[in-house]
Structures are given as structure tokens and as C-alpha cells.
Amino acid sequence: MNQTQSPTLPIQEAESPILSVRNLTTSFRSDDVWKPVVRNLSFDVPPRKTVAIVGESGSGKSVTSLSIMRLLPKRSSYIEGQINLGGQDLHTLSDDEMRRVRGRDVSMIFQEPMTSLNPIFPIGKQIAEALTVHKPLSRSEARAEVIRLLDKVRIPNAASRFDEYPHQFSGGMRQRVMIAMALASKPKLLIADEPTTALDVTIQGQILDLIKTLQDEDGMSVLFITHDMGVVAEIADECIVMFRGEAVEMGPTENIFLRGKHPYTRALLSAVPKLGSMTGRSLPLRFPIVDVLTGDMQPQRDVIDTVAQTKSPVLSVKNLTARFDIHSGIFSRKTAAVHAVENISFDLFEGETLSIVGESGCGKSTTGRSVTRLIEPVKGSIVIDGHDVMALNRPALRRMRRSIQMVFQDPFASLNPRMAIGTAVMEPYLEHGLGSRRQAQEKAADLLEKVGLKADMMRRFAHEFSGGQRQRIAVARALMLDPKVIVADEAVSALDVSIKAQVCNLLLDLQQSLNLAYLFISHDMAVVERISHRVAVMYLGEIVEVGPRAAVFENPQHPYTRKLMSAVPIPDPSRRTLKRELSVDELRSPIRSLKYVPPVREYREISTGHLVLLN
Amino acid sequence: MSSNANLMSGNPRPAPVAVEEASRPASSRIRQILKQMRKSKFALPGGAIVLIFIILAILAPWIAPHDPYANDLMAMLLPPSAEHPFGTDELGRDILSRVLVGARLSLVEGLFSVSLAMLIGVPTGMISGYVGGRTDTVIMRIIDVMLAFPGVLLAIVIVSILGPSLVNAMIAVAIYTVPIFARLARGSTLSVKEEPYIEACQSAGMRHSRILLRHIFPNIASTLWVMAALRVALAILTASSLSFLGLGAQAPSPEWGAMLAAGRNYMLVAPHVVIFPGGAIVLLVLGINLFQDGLRLALDPKMAER
């Protein structure tokens, strides 16, 4: 073993580890060349402990877990090294023996609870199947066992939900079902590959609590794979930081967080937004950027106040309501409506960032799309830069869209794969007839430089860029029309932490130089705290609390705001033993019957501009 | 596709480093397609067959040893010989010359009718899928009615109305191919329409015509090309069938189907009269189908990963 190149966890003295990986190297074949994706990785998972592998996309953390399970395609992958599970070298087992190890000794849960369950079988049957694969059971025995498992993962009314189908469960409940299935044969090791990434923050908190509780009850070991330092701090006893296929640092979580030596670890930790780090500041703050190779911290420039509250707002929304009808029956009559956005009002001033936060289904994205009339709102008034948006006809609407531009969540999907990015950036400018091709080219080149790319990249295609670079391109494209307002719909949510920090800094820089107003839609409380001037919290289509950022974050008044904030994982390992004791519940649905009359809402003003919904 | 599905199939995510490559000219794109096509064993032989037919068809008037229309009543139904490598037909015409000139007709039949079908079907389908609602319902019901007729039967009805001739046969084949392209274009448009980059275009205030032409069409084109290649082969078959039934190309024309029809009475005494034109149809259609299979592999990004 090469101690200098790959650090190893200190060997536990009393107990031998459950899983012991030595010199694992996994290579993939691409164009007839074998490329190592994981290099020379060695680590142990001690009994009853949680080990987290943390890293950004492309670091090889998921490949590591799939290598352990031997779930990689045989023809295009090659695994070297020893993987020792409870005294058995998994590498030497036959395919059939390996199949029996899976699910019995090691189980796995995945990121997407929405697609990991088979939609055509009741969940009870699916769990029973996982049980009977490894142990012959009669039907009634299997049923009893399944209900016991559903109870164990704290699914309310387990017995009555046995025959329900996956679509009748919410995301969090499905992840509980997945965990129940993984626990079916009491594995020694549970591999959790980003199990909470796709879930809302309050649900994530519940699932993390559940994993901790189950570990206390059953004494299994957990190998937890994640990109989220907050989650690591909360759940892991030991932690392995991976970077480009190699473990750059490993050790007890506290050591990594408090005394991380490798520059990459420090860069990663400094890029993680921490909720509550902005106490006492009223203006947004840039993220500190640490050089990955040297570990030097670049000084962060202060931001100046760009908000022009004296002028009239650049975007003013009054009583906006958006609903989606639900049709059913043979004649597809309107039977109910999703009250996605219910009677919300807000103003956005030049140079200001107003963030809308909330969980999935709260109506935050619908608000963003309604403002640009990508969705037709039911009622309300929207005034952008002097245009009454609701009164515009089609050509006028097209012109209005010059003042308000959007940046979307998924940088991989929001650029046309068949178009050179230069053409894509120039396109809106030419389409609106704002100038000649030559002017468009100059402007596009200028904007690409402004967002941190090079002008000579214009002839490349989207797939040649990384996620962060694509999001920069999307920003450049939005700026091509000199908009007053940019609606950023989860614009940094799909990005890796370090990239996220850079793109947030870019947005702040652009606000400083161009006096842009942002409507920043996000579920990420920590990012929102960093970059907003004002914050609006949405719940079930309504704004429950709105106000200056410092007021909302330091003095949250509405119970939902408090719940949301307490659920955010804090990257501080000293809080690891804490459990949130969140009640097991699901997000409520904004589907209402046709007779439903929305109640008249009143707001109480706590301090200047800080409004809270009265119940 | 979610990143998870990607991981489950074991494909590593691309490393977050942009490829250092200045630009991708069209020639490299073609080279890339050819490289992918080599993975399908029969694609290149198929392409070679098609290419040979195209070259022969272009050069036909210069390389044909005899005049394809010249009767020679002294040399009727002669078996293959050095003078007439494919033999002669019931009027003493050189079959090799007729098959060579007939290749032009067959290729034109295939390409013309499929182009016409695409010209009508693709815009109809794209508009139907993009606009949706009542427009979509109306257009699709008309298409459904067209699809309800068996293909050749519909073509026969159309030719009976228009009158038998090669051009009318091609129009008939085109009309019955329209619904296939309309449905395909509509389905692909429906899925591409939901992509975030289309919404990004709408929020940038672009015209619908531009979104359809510049953003949706290039992204559904590869599916359409694959289908087009497949339909060219079928169109050649159908047009030949119509000619065989006397509804397409008429008497002296060296159309392969018409040659089969004329030769079928002499099939027992002089089998070469049907073997060579029949063989030409089989070989060309087979070549196109093999080529099409490779094209499908090369243009489908999901297949390309393997």
C-alpha cells in the first residue's frame, strides 16, 4: 500500500472493519483507451459507523460505490484492487455469488426515489420481493414482515399503505420505501448514493434523522455518498474527500472540517454557504474563492449598495394569481384546480435582488414564469419597466421580453445542443433586430468575456462546456438584450459547490456593473442568505413572509420560515449528535375543489418592510 | 435523462473540463458519422451497394452497351451471352441496358416520392405538435383517416383517379407516405418542445417560426433522416409494384416493375427476363435498408455511447 499517495483511515484496533477497500482502481473504456476514473483508493468502513465520500461531479464517488457492488457494465469497465466485505473478497466471487451478496450483505439506495420504484407494482409487493429473494417466506409471513419494515421506516398507517402504488407516495415517502427495501434482509452495510439530493430540505432532514435512528437500532454501517458538506457534517463519523478520482484527504469528520490540510478540502469548505454566516450585514456578500491547487484565498471585494429604492420599482406585481385546471371524467370536465400562485404582490427595484424561497410545489417557479407570461396568470397586474404586461398583445409582448430575461436551472438542457454557442448568444439580439450581425458578434464576444469565458469559444457547441461554463453562457445570452430584470429560476441549484460560488459571484459582479435587478428563485436558503437584498418565503402558493434579508433570517416570524431554516443542514460537525425531531409529514398539496374560495389574507408589519402573514 | 440513470448504466459523467477543440467543421461531423457507422457490420457494404447503383444510374446512357429501347425481333429472349450479358427480352431489347437505365427511374421514384412526402408531412406534423389543442386534433384525425387505408390500396385508388403514369404513381406513393412523416415529426416535436432551451427561446421573445425552424427542426432531423432512408426503399418497392400492376410506368419505359410485368409471361422459358430486374430491386432495397440501419446507430446519440 502506498501511504504517501493515498491516505488511509487509522485502523480500528478492537474490531475489524465491515468493508475494507484496498488500492481500488476503476477504469472505463472510451474510444478503445482505458481511462482510470477512480485511482488507488483505500479505505475502511468500521462497524456501526458512517463513512461519507464527498466530492463534486466527476470525482469518482458514485463509481466507487458501483465498483463495490460490481454494478458497472463488464465490457466497458475494469476494476482492480481488493474489496473485502466481512472477510470475503468481493472481487473473486462468481456472478451468482455476488448476486446473493447484494441485498443480503450490502444494500444500496439511490438518488431518484421517483424512478427507483417500479410504477406498476404495489410497494408492499416490491418490498416482499426483496425479502423472498434471499429467504423463503409464506405470503402472510412476508406481509407481516413488510408491514414491520414500513413501520420501522416510520411510514404512517403502514398496514393500509401496503397495497398502494408508488405514484401515491410523495418523494420523501418513496425514499422511505426504498430504505425499507434496502433493510429487508438486515444488511451489514448500507450504501446511500446521494439519497437526499432530490428531496426538499425539510424532507431531507427527516430522511437523515431516519438513517441515524435506524443505524442506532440495527447497528449497520453506512457508506454515504454526497456532494453536500452540510449533510456530511451532520451524518458522517469519518469522511473521505475525493477530487478527480483520487482521495485527497480522509479522517474523522471533525478533523477534516476544522483542520483540513489539502487545498481542495479548504476550497470546498470555503465555498459551502453557511446559513447564519451573514448575521449583522445588510448587503449581499461575495463567496470567498480558494485556489484548488495552492489553497490561497483570494480577497473578496466588498459590494456597494446598488438598490435604487427612491425610483419607482422596475417590476411591480399586484395580486398575481395563477391556477392550473384539472380535468377528469369521460367529458374531461374541470373538476379541481391547482392554486399554484394565490394572490401575491411584490415590488422589485433597480439593482435589487429579491429572492423567492420555498419547497417544491410552493409556486415559486410559476411566479417567475407568470411574470414573463410564459404562463398566463388568471388575474393580477404586472408592470415591468413601465409596460403593463397583462395588457400586451403578442408583438408588444415580444418587445417587452427584452426588459426581462430568464436563466434556467439545468445548464445541460437550456442550450440547444445543435447550435454553436456564439450563434445561440447572438440570436435574441438579431431576432429583435437590434443591430447588424457584426454588432451582434462584437456584443456577444464582449459579454462572453464579461461572464468569464473567452470570445474565441463562440464556435464551440454546448456539449464541449462544463455545467458552470454553460450557465455562464446562459447568463451572457440573457444579457444580450440589455434587460432590466433577470429571473433566475434555480439558476445555481444544479451546480457543484465551488462552481455555484463562482456563478453567484458573477451574478453579484454583474449587478454591481450593470445595476441589474434579480428575481432569484431558489430552494437553497444558504445561497439566498448570501446574495439577496430582500427575501420572500412562499408556501402553498402564498407569500407567508417577506422583508429585508437580515430581518427575515435573523428574526423569522412565520412558523413555516422557522421550520425551513431549522431543516437546513449546517456544515458544522459539532452538531452531529443533534436530531431535529421533525414530525413525519408530507408537503401539502395546493389542489383545491372548484368551490374553494381563497381566504382574505392580512399581513402584519414587524419592522419596516418586514411583513408576515396572519393566520 | 437524469444523471442517475446515467450512473446506473455505468457511464461515467464527463469530467468537468471543456474539451480543447477549436471548432467542428462539417467534414469532421461526417467523419464522426462514418466512424459510428463502422460499428454496424453491414452499414458500409449497404452504403457501397447504394453508391454503386447511384453511379451506374448517373452514367447509364454512356455505359449501356445497347439502346434500351431498340427492338431486335431477330434476337428475342436470348439467354445471357457475351453480346448481351443479361440476355434480351421479348422484343429483343438488351436487358443489361434496360436495368441500367431503369436504375435512374427507381432512384428517382424513391427520392422524389419521399421528398414530396417529407415536404408535406414534416411541416404539418411539426405545426400540429407545436401548436397543440384543436389544430392538433383536427390535423391528426385527418392523418388517422389516411392511415386507416392499407398503403398500396390507397396508392391504387389515387392512381385510378389521376390516371396511370410514372409521375402519378410517385405522387400516390408520396401521399400515402405523408401520414408517416406527419406522425413522426409531431411526436418528436412534442418531446423537443418541452426542452428547457425551447422555453429559453420563448422567454427571449423569439418568433414561433424561428423556434420551429432553427431550434426544433435540427433536433428532430436525425430521426427524420433515418425514417426517410427506410421509406426510400419502401417507395421504390411500392412504385415498382404499381408499375407491375400497370398503374405506374408505361410500356416501353425500362422501369424494373414494368419489366417484371412484361416478362412474367416468359418466366418459364426465359427466367433471365425476370431474374435481373427482380434482382436489381432486391439488391437496391437491401442496400438501402442496411445503410439505414447504420445511419440509425450513427445519428442516435444514445446508441453512439456504446
From TrEMBL, chain A:
It is found in: Cell inner membrane. Part of the ABC transporter complex GsiABCD involved in glutathione import. Responsible for energy coupling to the transport system. Keywords: ATP-binding, Cell inner membrane, Cell membrane, Hydrolase, Membrane, Nucleotide-binding, Repeat, Translocase, Transport. Transmembrane segments: none annotated. It is a peripheral membrane protein. Residues 19-269, 315-565 form the ABC transporter domain. It catalyses: glutathione(out) + ATP + H2O = glutathione(in) + ADP + phosphate + H(+). This is Glutathione import ATP-binding protein GsiA. The keyword Transport applies. SUPFAM superfamilies: P-loop containing nucleoside triphosphate hydrolases. It comes from Microvirga puerhi. One of its GO terms (molecular function) is ATP binding. It holds the Pfam family ABC_tran. The complex is composed of two ATP-binding proteins (GsiA), two transmembrane proteins (GsiC and GsiD) and a solute-binding protein (GsiB). Belongs to the ABC transporter superfamily. Glutathione importer (TC 3.A.1.5.11) family. PROSITE patterns: ABC_TRANSPORTER_1, ABC_TRANSPORTER_2. Its EC number is 7.4.2.10. Its main location: membrane. NCBIfam families: PRK10419.1, PRK11308.1. InterPro entries: AAA+_ATPase (IPR003593), ABC_transp_ATP-bind (IPR050319), ABC_transporter-like_ATP-bd (IPR003439), ABC_transporter-like_CS (IPR017871), Oligopep_ABC_C (IPR013563), P-loop_NTPase (IPR027417).
